């Protein structure tokens, strides 16, 4: 049996379609989230790209906005495109949250509890 080396300490959850991560000069759909970080997919452009040291979460469907969450990029990798006709280059970025103030941590925890899929992935 093959084992995986799971580094995440918090369970990850899926959000609805309207949840977006905004980081420096890019934005994309959030794939999953936990109290420890999140993963999002964005359309790669030819312009300069920065990793940024903060991220914002915007979910217009649920009237939620949290800004300036300290983070660091853990991994960034191209998304494998199943269609050979699609020239768009999608990238998945996973970030780890830095130290959160207690009120921000509680706000994020409440958001995940209310709006995330109940089943961890």
Can you tell me about this structure?
By secondary structure, the protein is mainly beta. Helix content is 12%, strand content 41%. The chain has one helix spanning 102-115; strands at residues 19-23, 26-34, 37-43, 54-59, 64-78, 90-97. It has a six-stranded antiparallel β-barrel. A hairpin with a 4-residue loop joins β4 and β5.
- At the fold tier of CATH, the topology name is Thrombin, subunit H
Helix content: 10-25%
Report on the biggest sheet: 6 strands, antiparallel, barrel
Percentage of β-strand residues? 35-45%
Q: Got a strand count?
A: 6
Average of pLDDT: 86
Distance between the termini: 20 Å
Which structural class best describes the helix and strand composition? mainly beta
Q: Give the class-level CATH name.
A: Mainly Beta
| Overall morphology | globular
| Count of helical regions | 1
Q: Do you know the CATH architecture?
A: Beta Barrel
Please trace the helix and strand order, writing H or E for each element: EEEEEEH
Number of domains: 1
User: What's the alpha carbon Rg, rounded to whole Å?
Assistant: 15 Å
Major sheet strand order = 1-2-3-6-5-4
Poorly predicted runs: 1-6
